[in-house]
Amino acid sequence: MRGKGTEAEAKEEKLAVANPKLATLIYHCFNIAFVLVVILYIVHVVVYYNSSEVWWQAFLAAAIVSPLFIAPLYYMPMLRDFFVKEYDMGSHDNNGSFLGSKLLASEKA
């Protein structure tokens, strides 16, 4: 009797990277976006610190906007993996389930 974990592993084995350059581009774009969000957060904290008169105002402003910067950082690796699986990986068996074969078939018609 096979468990759900082995079925998922078998399904994962059928997927292969169709275009390694696209997968690399997706990874690099998400890494750049991650770094930009961190830099933007640091800039915001510095601006809050420089523009506030008392320390607790800067602390409160940073505490309020921190979830807006931390949430994307938390979800970015998940989105990156999703985009690689969705746009660059596909089943390469001959049953026509691969999106590329469907697109090529529609161009021939």
Model description:
By secondary structure, this protein is mainly α. Helix content is 80%, strand content 6%. α2 (20-51) packs antiparallel against α3. The termini are far apart. The model has no long low-confidence stretch (mean pLDDT 78).
Give structural attributes.
single chain, two-stranded antiparallel sheet, 2 strands
The count of DSSP E runs of length 2 or more, i.e. the number of strands, is 2
- Note the beta-strand portion: 5-15%
Q: Which structural class should the secondary elements be placed in?
A: mainly alpha
Q: Return residue spans where pLDDT drops below 50 for at least 5 consecutive residues.
A: none
- In DSSP terms, counting alpha (H) and pi (I) runs of 4 or more, how many helices? 4
Characterize the largest beta sheet: strand count, sense, and whether it forms a barrel.
2 strands, antiparallel
Order of helices and strands: HEHHEH
Mean pLDDT value: 78
Could you estimate the helical fraction of the residues in percent?
A: over 70%
Principal-axes geometry comes out as elongated
Q: Output the radius of gyration.
A: 22 Å
Cα distance spanning the termini: 44 Å
Instruction: Walk across the major sheet and give the strand order.
Output: 1-2
Compose a concise summary of this entry:
The longest helix is centred in the middle third of the chain and has 34 residues, at 55-88. With 109 residues, this protein is mainly α. The chain has helices at residues 4-14, 20-51, 55-88, 99-108; strands at residues 15-17, 89-91.
Question: How do the strands and helices of this protein lay out in sequence?
Answer:
Elements: H1 4-14, E1 15-17, H2 20-51, H3 55-88, E2 89-91, H4 99-108
Antiparallel strand pairs: 1-2
